[in-house]
Amino acid sequence: MKKKKLVIAGAVILIVAVIAGFCVKPVKQFFADRKAAQKTGFYMDTVVTADITGENCGETADAVFNAIQVLEEFCLSKTAEGSDIYELNEKGKYEVTDSTLGILEKSLEVCKKSGGALDIGIGKLVDLWNVKNRQTPPSQEETDALRGSRYEEISVDANEVTLGDGVKIDLGAVGKGAACDSARDICALSGVKRAVISVGGSVLLYGEGEFTVGIASPETGSADYIAVLTTGAGFVSTSGTYERFFDYEGKRYHHILDPETGYPVDNGLCSVTVVSDSGILSDALSTACFVLGLEDGMNLCEEYGCQAVFITDDGKIYTTDGIRDSLEISDDSFSFAD
Ligand code: AMP
Ligand code: MG
User: Fold this and answer.
1) Residue 171: nearest ligand to its CA?
2) Is 332 helix (H, G, I), strand (E, B) or coil?
3) Ligand 2 mean position to 6 CA, how many Å?
4) For each successive 10 residues of the chain (338 residues), what is the average pLDDT?
5) Is the distance from the beta carbon of residue 262 to the nearest atom of ligand 1 less than 6 Å?
6) Rounded to two decimals, what is the model's pTM?
7) How far does the chain reach from its first CA to its final CA, in angstroms?
8) Is residue 257 in contact with ligand 1, taking CB distance under 6 Å?
């Protein structure tokens, strides 16, 4: 009898052990998957946020922020002494790092393909407008002296970059997207499950499944969303008049400049969002398409195989064909154009 009890007890222990063996891994996995990190910082003159889930999420968030800081301080900043762009702008000729070179080359490609709508050589015009700190527009003489194409006066020979007389580089239109590319590389290395990392108007969506991204109200900025885009992993960048501007005598002067006129773009658009599988491309195209306007901007996105959402001052929303069904308007003062 005693022996029988022992056998039953042994069998029960065995069954429990087997069940526990099956359960421990999924339970561990469950907790690993629920690991989450949120982090906020300020780099590249804008707010950076990271929302990461999966193993090593905290370390990954730290690494992403470090990488963005390094990219800014050593490569792209116009104002940080010792950065590639600072030194290049000061000296007119400079041997840049591979990271900066890759960003310059991709940017110059989009400058060319957009017919100079994107022009990373208009640093002096950007400084003249200094939209963040100005309250009145510069004089016509001042803008006339700096308007016109400049990117063709940037030449690249291996890592040595040379600027034409009076050309200064400004990577404000592409840097945040490039930072998102660095963030993606770090997420891929660290093996996190999902990440949403936003650097100002550029966002990295990393991981499997779908993500929703709010499109900021062109009137009030990012606090309100006028539409929600559902999309897979990739990059989404928005250029909008609301991001940086001042109002003077009833007119809005914003930070996206038309190199041809020397003035802020005034073509009826108030926001352009581009979805791409490259961060720098989504950022470069959002600015380029804003300057190009609705028709030429749409054509450029199609040429690059990117999806886009254009919003006009009168509240009409235009999209490339591939994205229309993924966009849901949540503010009834906006509507699809057709
Ligand atoms: P984004 O917010 O990406 O559209 O970039 C706007 C920033 O790019 C501005 O704040 C300027 O620093 C710079 N910028 C403005 N207009 C242009 C332009 N036409 N081409 C290249 N960079 C520009
Ligand atoms: Mg841009």
Assistant:
1) 1
2) coil
3) 73
4) 56 52 51 78 96 95 98 97 98 98 98 98 97 93 96 98 96 98 97 96 97 90 85 97 88 95 96 98 98 98 97 96 96 92
5) no
6) 0.89
7) 84
8) yes
